[in-house]
Amino acid sequence: MKRIACIAGALLLIATPYSGRAAGDGDRSGFNRHWYLQVQAGAAYTLGETSFGDLVSPAAALSAGYRFSPVWGLRFGLSGWQARGAWASPASPYDYNFLQGNVEATLDLANLFGRFNPTRTVNPYLFAGVGLNYAFNNDEAVALNDAGYTMDNIWSDSKAFAVGRMGVGVNFRVSNRVQLGLEVNANILSDKFNSKKAGNVDWHFNALAGLSIRLGKSHRKAAAPAVVPATPVKPAEPAETPQESETQPAPEQPAPTPAVEKPQPLRENIFFRIGKTNISEEEQPKIRSLVDYLKKNTVATVRITGYADAATGSQRRNLQLSEQRARNVSDALQQAGIPADRINIDYKGDTEQPFSTAVENRVSICIAR
């Protein structure tokens, strides 16, 4: 059990750089409840008194799971194949078979301690539940007992056992629907499971690798916010000046000031390479476009908002990246002669994702008006 706890802690540390803060209004993706199928195969080990290698046997599992929140889910599975026991002295191993039905709750550690992120690469999880084990084909143990080895918990034909189980696993994202996974689980059964009397419960362990396939969409994407151009405001008509008397001539009315139309806002999206904050040569024309607009419209200002994609990096690192991206655009405008008091900067890290792809969210959005 100490080893399982250590593995859980290690998987959580691995996943931390891929997590952000808790999902909120700025999250651009929403969770969808969905089913998934899981196929696994590997090795089993029934705790005993002989060498480790003598007690290792093949194992397999087929499961269907339902995720009803970003953190919690249920899994229904059928596992089994072969278990192995051994009489210690002289060492006499024996095989028997079993099938086990399982029902367990699953806990997604990455979404528990971080922001829901459907494109996260590493996704560790814990699970715990109960099962019913149906063991059969115990002829080899029966033969040893008949030969005089006196196994006090011997059973023949078949036998059913209640099971408590727990474990830890990690999934690695391959695509929106496919994940590769590794899992270790521990099963607690009656002392009669391996036909030998030990005065305590029997432990049966499995180490499995497998494939998970999501059925249906696991998330939905919100549309990027649209930028609404500002509507020019028409100056108010000058009020009429009342005449002092009928005999006095009306004072001359000043010529009305012609309405000046505000220019349409200009938006430029300055994109950056992954993990970078410098403005690439390909994005320089957008900087020149902003400079030309601000020099032509001398009362206009520009707001620069930096972002980082949520698919990579930690929350802290992404906040730093988004701030530096915004400041580098500001510095480029100032070097081109735009006063600092006409430039406003903001940065969101990965708490907001204005676009639907990770590549587009490595950006500084500049709106001049």
Q: Please state the second-level CATH architecture of the largest domain.
A: Beta Barrel
Structural class of the helix and strand makeup? Answer: alpha+beta
Low-confidence parts: 11-28, 222-228, 241-245
Through-space gap between termini: 62 Å
Mean pLDDT: 85
Write out the strand line-up for the largest beta sheet, numbering strands in chain order.
2-3-4-5-6-7-8-9
Question: Could you walk me through the main structural features you see in this protein, from its secondary elements to its overall organization?
Answer:
- The chain is α+β, with helices and mostly antiparallel strands.
- It folds into two domains: 2-221, Porin (Beta Barrel), CATH 2.40.160.20; 266-368, OmpA-like domain (60s Ribosomal Protein L30, Chain: A).
- Helices cover 17% and strands 39% of the residues.
- The protein has helices at 2-15, 109-113, 139-149, 284-296, 315-335, and strands at 29-31, 34-46, 56-67, 72-87, 92-108, 122-136, 158-173, 178-189, 202-215, 219-221, 266-271, 302-306, 343-347, 363-368.
- The protein has an eight-stranded antiparallel beta barrel with strand order 2-3-4-5-6-7-8-9. Strands 11-14-12-13 form a four-stranded mixed beta sheet.
- Helix 5 links the parallel strand 12 and strand 13 (343-347).
- The longest helix has 21 residues, at 315-335.
- It is rod-shaped.
- Mean pLDDT is 85; it is low at 11-28, 222-228 and 241-245.
